[in-house]
Write a structure and sequence with these properties.
alpha/beta; Rossmann fold; 28 helices; 53% helix; two-stranded antiparallel ribbon
Length: 626
C-alpha cells in the first residue's frame, strides 16, 4: 500500500549519537483521512509539547491506521503489552531507537568483569559498559527525529501516574512527538483527570470499513482459483454494517469464513442468485453474532420455532412480556435477514461457527434439502411441505396430500421421516387450518406405531446408548418443526416410538442366539468384541440384553467346545459385561444369568479330574463371583 507520507527537510535530534540514529526526516502528507491529516501535522512540528491519544472501539483498526500513516521508517513503534515497570518500557524504547547500542548492552550484560575492547565506545570493563547503557543513560539518550508510538495502553500494568509522568518526560524534556493508542474506553476514562496535562489532542478513530473490507477480500482470495462469489461478497459488507459492529477483527474473520463456506459449494449453488444472497447474509449475520458472543451454540437450534414462539408469547402477554431471548434480539438487528432461515441446518451452522469445521458433504446436503435446491420430483413429501414458505402452491399442495396419504396408509417406517410428518401435521393444526388438535394427531401417531408393530414393520432399535441421536432433534439434516404450543404432544409420540422400537428389538433377540453361540465356539476374542467395548469392537450387543435369552447350559457347552486359546477372552467378556450392568440399564434383565453360568461351570468342573477340572475352575474364577 502506498505510504501517504514523503520525506522533507531534516529535523535536528537532541542527544542522538550519529552511529545509532536513523535518517532524520520530517513528513508531509497527501491527506487520506482525518487521522492521517492530523498525524502529518503533528509529526511535522519540532517540539509540540504534548502527546496525542488515539482512542476508539476494540477492533476499529486504530493500530493499523496509525502504522499505515506512520510506518517503521518514520516512527518508533512499541507495544506496552506485557511491560510491567517504567524501566522495562524505557529499555524497550531505547532498543527501538538505538538497535546497535542495544545489542552492545545485551552483549555487555552477558560478559563477566573482564575487560573487552569495543571500537565504537572504547575499551572499558563490561561492568562499566553495562551500567553505562542502563539506568540514566537509556533515559537520557533519545532519538526524537521520529515519532514515538506507544500501543496497547490498557495492557500495561504500570500505574497511570507513573506512565503519564514517563510520557510527559519524553514530550517535555526530550521534545518527542508521542502517540499513544488505547483500545479500551474504560482505560481512556481513567486518564480523564490527568490526561489534559499530557495529551494535547485526543483522536477518536472510526473504522474504515470499506477499505478494510477490500483488504480482507484481497487477503483471502485465491488468485489461482476463479472468484465464484464475485459480487455476493458485498453481502458480507452489507450485513456487517447492519449488525452495528465496529470491530474490523470480526469483519476479517467473517470474510475468511464466508470464503471457506464458498469453497464447499457447487457451481449450481452459485448460479442461484436468490439462494446465494440469503446464504451469505444468513451465515454472515450468525457468524457476527457468534464471534461477538451475542449468540451461544444452543441458540442456533430450532431458530424458527424459538423466534415464532417468543413473538406469540409476547403478543399474548397483557403486561410486560417475557425477557427477549438472544436469538430474537439478533433477529431484530437484521431487518433484511431471516435469522430463522433453514437454508443451513442448525447442526451444520454449529459445526462451522463453533467448531470451525466446514464439512463439504454436510454443507451441500443441507443446502440441497432447502427449497432453493430441492429436487421436487424426487424429494419426500415432508421436505416439500416443510419448505412451503418458498414454494408455489402447485408444489406444496400435492405434497401435502401425498404426505397425508402416507400417514393414513402407514407407508413410512423410517423414524425421522415419520416424526417430520407428525411435526408438520401438528404445526398445520396449531395454525387452525385443520379441524383437529395436536393431541388428537399424537393419538393417531401412536396408533400408527402400533400398526407397524403388529405388522412387524417397525425397525427394532439399534445397539448403543446413542442410537436415538439419529432422529432425536432432526432427520435428513432438517430440524423437526416443533413449537412450544404442541411440544409436549410431539415429545409423547417420540417417547412412544423409542419404547416401541426397543420392544421390537426384544422380539428379535431369541432368533440371534444360535449365531452368537457359533461365535463363542469359533473365536473367543471375536466374542469379546461382539459383546464388550474394545478398540476393535463391532459393539453389536453392547447394550442389547442378548444373554437374557441364552440358556446357561447351552452357553457352557459352546464355551467348552471352543479352542482353549480363546477361553480367556470368553471369561473376561462375561466379567466385563457383568460389571457394566450398572452403566447400561437396558442390560438389567441379564443380571440373573451370570450366576447361573458360574454355577454351571463349577458343576461341570466337579465331574472332571486333573488339569481338566482345574481348567474349568480357573474359567469360573476368571469370570468372577457373579
Amino acid at each position: 500500500m502506498r505510504n501517504p507520507f514523503r520525506s522533507n527537510a531534516p529535523v535536528k535530534s537532541n542527544t542522538v549519537s550519529p552511529e545509532d540514529s536513523a535518517p532524520v526526516t520530517s513528513l508531509a502528507i497527501e491527506p487520506q483521512s482525518h487521522l492521517e491529516k492530523y498525524l502529518a501535522y503533528y509529526v511535522g512540528r519540532l517540539r509540540p509539547g504534548y502527546a496525542v491519544l488515539v482512542a476508539g472501539e476494540w477492533g476499529a483498526g486504530k493500530t493499523h491506521q496509525v502504522r499505515r500513516a506512520l510506518p517503521d521508517t518514520h516512527a518508533h513503534y512499541i507495544s506496552l503489552f506485557g511491560l510491567n515497570t517504567s524501566g522495562e518500557i524505557e529499555a524497550e524504547i531505547f532498543t527501538k531507537m538505538f538497535p546497535k547500542a542495544s545489542a552492545v548492552r545485551r552483549f555487555a550484560e552477558k560478559m563477566d568483569s573482564t575487560s573487552v575492547g569495543i571500537p565504537v565506545l572504547g575499551s572499558l570493563g563490561t561492568g562499566g559498559l553495562a551500567s553505562l547503557l542502563t539506568g540514566q543513560f537509556i533515559k537520557n539518550e533519545v532519538d526524537s527525529s521520529r515519532a514515538l508510538i506507544l500501543d496497547d495502553l490498557e495492557r500495561c500494568t504500570v500505574d497511570n501516574p507513573v506512565l503519564l509522568g514517563m510520557i510527559n518526560r519524553y514530550v517535555e524534556h526530550h521534545g518527542c512527538r508521542v502517540i499513544v493508542i488505547a483500545h479500551d474506553r474504560k482505560v481512556v476514562e481513567t486518564f480523564a483527570d490527568a490526561k489534559e496535562k499530557v495529551f494535547g489532542q485526543t483522536l477518536h478513530v472510526e473504522p474504515n470499513v470499506d477499505a478494510a473490507f477490500a483488504e480482507f477480500v484481497d487477503l483471502f482470495k485465491d488468485p489461482l482459483k476463479p472468484d465464484k462469489l464475485g459480487a455476493h461478497r458485498l453481502e458480507v459488507l452489507f450485513t456487517f454494517r447492519e449488525s452495528g459492529t465496529a470491530s474490523l477483527r470480526i469483519l476479517r474473520h467473517v470474510v475468511e469464513d464466508v470464503g471457506r463456506l464458498a469453497d464447499a459449494l457447487e457451481d449450481r449453488h452459485f448460479e442461484n442468485h436468490m439462494a446465494m444472497v440469503e446464504l451469505v447474509r444468513l451465515f454472515s449475520a450468525l457468524a457476527i453474532e457468534a464471534r461477538t458472543n451475542k449468540l451461544k451454540r444452543e441458540d442456533l437450534y430450532r431458530r424458527k420455532e424459538k423466534i415464532f414462539s417468543y413473538r406469540m408469547d409476547a403478543a399474548r402477554a397483557k403486561a410486560a412480556g417475557p425477557p427477549q431471548p438472544r436469538l430474537n434480539e439478533a433477529a431484530d438487528r437484521y431487518a433484511s435477514i431471516d435469522i430463522g432461515s433453514t437454508l443451513l441446518s442448525d447442526d451444520v451452522l454449529a459445526e462451522m461457527l463453533f467448531d470451525g469445521r466446514f464439512t463439504v458433504e454436510h454443507i451441500r446436503t443441507s443446502l440441497n434439502n432447502s427449497a432453493y435446491f430441492l429436487e421436487k420430483k424426487a424429494a419426500p413429501p415432508w421436505q416439500i411441505v416443510g419448505s412451503f414458505d418458498k414454494l408455489d402452491d402447485e408444489y406444496s399442495d400435492p405434497a401435502l396430500a401425498r404426505m397425508n396419504e402416507q400417514f393414513e396408509k402407514r407407508q413410512v417406517t423410517d423414524s425421522g421421516e415419520f416424526l417430520h410428518i407428525v411435526a408438520l401435521k401438528m404445526m398445520i393444526a396449531s395454525r387452525g387450518v385443520l379441524d383437529i388438535t395436536s393431541k388428537e394427531i399424537a393419538d393417531a401417531a401412536k396408533d400408527y406405531i402400533d400398526d407397524l408393530v403388529t405388522a412387524k414393520r417397525l425397525p427394532p432399535r439399534k445397539a448403543g446408548s446413542m442410537w436415538v441421536d439419529e432422529f432425536k432433534e432432526a432427520s435428513g439434516g432438517v430440524t423437526y418443526w416443533v413449537a412450544d404450543s404442541y411440544r409436549a404432544d410431539f415429545q409423547g409420540v417420540f417417547e412412544y416410538l423409542v419404547k416401541a422400537r426397543t420392544e421390537a428389538l426384544a422380539d428379535t433377540l431369541p432368533g440371534r442366539v444360535p449365531a452368537l453361540l457359533e461365535v463363542v465356539k469359533a473365536d473367543g476374542q471375536k466374542f469379546f468384541d461382539t459383546v464388550c467395548h474394545s478398540r476393535n469392537a463391532t459393539l453389536e450387543y453392547v447394550d442389547l440384553p442378548i444373554f437374557a435369552y441364552v440358556d446357561p447350559a447351552a452357553f457352557v457347552d459352546a464355551w467348552l467346545d471352543s479352542p482353549k486359546t480363546g477361553w480367556y477372552w470368553i471369561g473376561n467378556a462375561l466379567k466385563e459385561r457383568n460389571k457394566a450392568l450398572t452403566q447400561y440399564p437396558a442390560l438389567a434383565s441379564e443380571s440373573a444369568w451370570y450366576p447361573q453360568v458360574h454355577e454351571e461351570l463349577l458343576r461341570r468342573a466337579q465331574s472332571q479330574e486333573g488339569l481338566a477340572r482345574i481348567r474349568l475352575e480357573r474359567a469360573a474364577e476368571l469370570m468372577g463371583n457373579a
